[in-house]
Amino acid sequence: MKTAIRLAAAVAVVLASTAFGQAKETVNIGMCVSWPGYAMYEIATKEGLSPDYEINLIAFDDPLGGHAALAAGQIDVYECTSDYTPLAVERGTGVVNVAFANPSYGVDHIILAPDVTPENIKGRRIAAPQAYIGQLLMGVWLDSVGVDVKDVDWVNLNSDEAVGPMMSGDLAAAYLYEPWITKVFDNLPGSKSAFDTSSPYSLKTGIFTDVVYMNGTFVKERRKAALDMLRARWDAIGWWHDHTKEGNQIMADKLRWPIEDVESVIGTNGKYLTGGIYMYDFDEAARACGVLDGDAPFGLGHGVMVDVTKRINEWWVRLGLMTEVHDPSAGIDCSLLGDLVAAGYRQSLTENK
What we know:
Elements: H1 2-18, E1 25-31, H2 40-46, E2 53-59, H3 63-71, E3 77-81, H4 85-91, E4 95-105, E5 108-112, E6 125-127, H5 133-144, E7 153-155, H6 159-168, E8 173-177, H7 180-187, E9 192-196, H8 200-205, E10 209-215, H9 216-221, H10 223-242, H11 244-255, H12 259-266, E11 276-277, H13 282-289, H14 305-318, H15 335-342
Parallel strand pairs: 1-2, 1-3, 6-7, 6-8
Antiparallel strand pairs: 3-10, 4-10, 4-11, 5-8, 5-9
Helix pairs in contact: 2-10, 2-11, 6-7, 10-11, 10-15, 11-12
């Protein structure tokens, strides 16, 4: 209900702002949580990179609620984690994953309470958000240390919700990301990171990745707008690369985060932060989709989106969230990136020294 009220209020503001001037085409874009990696469209708006559009950027802070809004056509574009793609296929929502946006580059962790080890974690309470990257990361870590996922007591909590129970001793382990990791470390001496997404194994799975989703009807009936939104997003990444300090401040203002917290996630070199996230440039995203020659980063190869989606589906079956593996290509549409490639759009970025 809160999400619906917030969405309605945001749309009302956009309508009011265009009532006294020339109306622009409105595109509603969701961020599944308040997060720097999802805030590039704010740069596109502030820097006039999409002048023909009124971008209505909404933070849901409720990943599944945002997916429901996308499926219902209340929003057109949604930036979130790739783990939902197989679920969209299974549920026939019509939502499609149109691009890899950025892999987690160490920002996502499994944090253990003091004195907790893989050897004594069985039967204890662990927290991870269901049907989200946290549940996958927790499952992969448990598997890597030989603990069956059925041998722990799962609690469905997002990172901000798990901080208090971690510090009070109610949880043995939790999926956390910054700035919540630092808050736990500062207030719970002896807590430690057991696993994170910067490990070569995590990166090569490809499953801990943020992506761009679009409503299928939006892609079909408003294809020019869909293409323009992808172009605007990567134009914004290029602007951020060239004006990283200013771009980080724009995102901090939008998210209402201290600038230091933004920098602790997305860095200051205009490309990546070890221990944070790594922003795909356009060419890297196009290679992951298989519409531009060359391999995606981190040993993922060419056209990996289908294989990664199948891998996620297989993990959801292991974790009991799904019962069968579906055709992964049904949840992926690389034609938009392909059209941009055919039109000559390119972008290759390296970190600023």
